[in-house]
Structures are given as structure tokens and as C-alpha cells.
Amino acid sequence: MINQSIKELSVALAARKISSVELAKLFLRRIHALNGDLNAFITVDEARTLEQARAADERIARGEATSLTGIPVAHKDIFCARGWRTTCGSRMLANFTAPYDAHLIESFNAAGAVILGKTNMDEFAMGSSNETSWFGPVKNPWDRTRVPGGSSGGSAAAVAARMAPAATATDTGGSIRQPAALTGLTGIKPTYGLVSRYGMIAFASSLDQAGTLTRSAEDSALLLNVMAGFDDRDSTSVQRPREDYTRDLGQPLAGLRVGVVKEHFGEGLSPDVGSAVQASLQELQKLGATLVEVSLPNAGLAIAAYYVIAPAEASSNLSRFDGVRYGHRAAEYGDLAEMYSKSRAEGFGAEVKRRILIGTYVLSRGYYDAYYVKAQKLRRLIAADFAEAFRQCDVVAGPTSPIVAFELGAKAADPVQMYLNDVYTIPANLAGLPGMSLPCGFGDQGLPAGLHLVGDYFSEAKMLRIAHQYQQATGWHLRSPEV
Amino acid sequence: MSLSLEEVRRVAALARIRVSDEEAQATCAQLNSILDLIGQMQAVDTTGIEPMSHALDVPLRLREDKVTDQDRRELFQSIAPRVEEGLYLVPKVIE
To answer: Most Cβ neighbours (<10 Å): which of A289, A421, A476, B95?
Structure first.
């Protein structure tokens, strides 16, 4: 049962082969057995989960089920869920109980899905290894001495270890796609603005986007059907008609042009990952797609531009944590300024502080044009590179991460080395384009490698179709770690 | 461009984050390595390029000027560090 797809689980629920309560208990038992070791969940609340599962069973009995009614879903601890502790991986919010639901949580609740728990993450989504969490690192289920990637490492480990059928996540510079690659999952970051940011704790507002970590493209499509949609409480939510993201999954790939990004196969790419990705491109060709070489000449500067824009926006967003209205307040302080500075010094971890300081610096008087405006100009060039590439192809492809999962602690001491993990994923965030990672084989030490796809704006259905067709022809997505 | 220890302290003060002397030392080196990374941007000539402030070129929506928020003061204050009679308590700022 734990290896079944969302669709199979949905069919089993409808046929009353299993109840939602039984399904929730099955996964809760698995969390109970594995979480002490993997640390994928920050909060599990069995009573709340089972209450939702009972309501789902009643709804199924009334014949009012949707495709997700009764399905347990784990949520990244960045989404506010009313009555649930919502920490964002930070001491700052270690005791914060969300007073309202994020739009994404509302959407899952309305569909009758069941909240299975809140997953571990890098603090405020800042990291690529899940080692910056106040609640400790997450272990990669494929090898517990290694990281699961980040920032959505808990969601990735939970689904990879089958502690949850599917999970939500967020991606600001690669935080869905890189953990997907490192744990052998399918991850999708939709077009910026497709899923509302309401109730999703902000990191870098012009880049943040919610998406999913699942076992297959089909599961991703089913979740995206529920999450995507206009919400007037998010000023950048996109107003457009709803889509059925499963509609094209069955379409063959004949006639499709896949653009191979030449810059993404050069220096820095580990040969084991490179061969797995090359083999997957050959497979797409066998399935009828045409491979064309494309260039993203400015993509190499994406990391530099990103580490101006994201910290700048973070320093502004995180100024709300002042110890006044919610979150951590220092126990002892003299005046107001000291209350702020001590509360923030205690509440934030080292990586979050670094990014706030960089952001504060690049926005400070005299530096704004040299850093922030310059980065915004590069952002324009990077977006223009993609626009040019999409004149020659339907989707661009390359590796998601330059390496397979690395060892815990291997990069923790050097922030810049950690940042370089996201070299292939960041350009899509800067441009606002949808991106995906799908399992495409194994590299050194039998660890998963990921194929990265970036599509044009709102081309999620097309990307999911490519991923689904690939998954029908290969079995990489069905492989799971022994836990 | 490189940050001095004094500048790190100034930026930390602007960001309202207290830093000890040891933290300032360690942070200074790390921030400078990040600034080196960021410095790669200067290699590209961006003369005449319009800055891109947002992922999608869509105008901000306007809405009718009417109150849509509900009064949730009690709920929101129930999670505050210190409140009294519906007000958030902070150290005295006006003598």
C-alpha cells in the first residue's frame, strides 16, 4: 500500500478497500518508526490527522469525494496551517501556532486531503542541504550519512522513505528540484504566481513558488490541480483559467523539441550525473522528441545575481520578526532596540543572519545601484536567454544538480560552496519559469541523479507530459531506498 | 569590494541583529567570500538594460476600496509574547 500512486490510493479509497483512517494510520506508523532516524518531520499531530481522515471517510461515504479526498499529504513547515505548529525550521517560530490557513492548505482541505504532518526544512528555506534547520538535519533515506538536499529536505526524505504518499514544498532557487534529484523523486516548481503565496512564510517574494515532491509526474499533476489557482490575497497571484494538468499526460512526444543547454554540461558537472542525464536525453529522443542544442549565455551569472536579489528581499521580509507580535522574544532586555536585536540574534541561525546581513548591505545607501539594480539587469538578460531558447525548442533540459547527494557536513562550513549546488536551478527562478526534476538513473555509490526540465511560462502540462512519457518508458521513479 | 569589521557591525546594527566580537570576525570573512561571488556580476556590461524587478510583466491589480479583513485581534494576540488590554507590550520608548 505504501508504494501505491495517488491514483491507486484514490481508487482503493473509493472502492472501500481501505479507509482514510486506516491509510493515515499506516503512514503515521511508518513516520513513528523512521522519523527518529531520518528527522523528516518537525511536527506530527496524530489526533488532528485522524480527525481529518474520519471527515474524509464520511465524505467518501456521501459520494462527494474528489481525487484527493482521504489522501494523506505532508506539508513543508513553511505553510501556515491553522492550529498546527508552523516553525519554518527556525527557533524564531519554534512555538508559533498558525492562527490561519495558507491558501495551499485551504485548497487541500477543501479537496478533502488529510494533513499528515509538517516537514523539516532549512531555516526559512535558506539552504541546499537541510542542515540549517533549528530542528536538526534530515538524513537522506538512500544513505543516512548524506544530505537529502534542501531546502525542502524533509518533504523529500518523507516521500522517498514512503513516510508520506506525497508532499508539498517551495522553491526559491532550487529548493524543490535539488532535493528531488538527490532523493530520486519528481519535483515541480510551477510558473511564478501559479500557486498563491498567501500563508506561505516569505523568503524572497519575487522568486518564491510552491510546488510538490512526489513519486511520479502523474501524482504531481493531481496535486497541482488542487493547488494552482487565483487568490486575491496574494498580489502576484496570476488570474487565468484553471487547467487540468493530467490532460496531456498520455500524449506521445513525437514532434517535441528538447533544447539541451550546452553550458550545463561543462566544468563543474560530475561525470556520473552527466552520463545519467545524457542517457535520459537519448531516451527522450527514442520516445520521439528531437534534441536541439541551445545556449543560455548568461546563466553562469545567475548565482551572483540571485545572491543579491534573494538576500535583499529576505532582509526586508524577515524584518517582521521583531519579538513584538509573534515569534521568539529574548528573556531579558533593556530598551526596545535591545529587545529587537537580542530577540533576532537568538531567534535566527547563522545562515539566515548571513543572508539578512548581505541583503541589508546591498540595499544600503551608496550600494543599491552597484548591487541590487545591477542584479535586476542581469535578471533581465537571463530571462531573455530563455525567451531566445524557447524560439528553438519546447523545453530546455540538463542536469538538476551537478553532483549526487553529498555527505552531511561536507559543505556546511563554506556558504559559497553550498550556494553552487543551485547553479542549474536558479536561472528558472530568476526568470519566473516552471521547472521540474525527475529521476533519471543513478550515479556514484548508487545515489539518484535528476534530469532538469525548464519550460516556457505556464507550460506545466507539457512538462508533466514529457516526464510522464519518460516514466512510462523507464522505471527510475519506481526505485526506492531500502529503509 | 571588501567589508571591514566595522562595516559588519554597522550592517548588523541596521539589521537589528546583535553580534558578539567573535561572531563579527567569523561573519566578516564569510560575507566577503559571498561578496566575491556577487562581484562576478560586474564582468557583464549591462548598459541600457532595463532592470527586471518582477518575474512576470503583469500590472498590479487594483481592488475596490472597501474593508474585507475581519477583526481577528484576539486570535492574533493569543500568540503574542506580551499583550495587555488588547495592546502589544514593548519597553517604554517615550519618556
So the answer is: A421
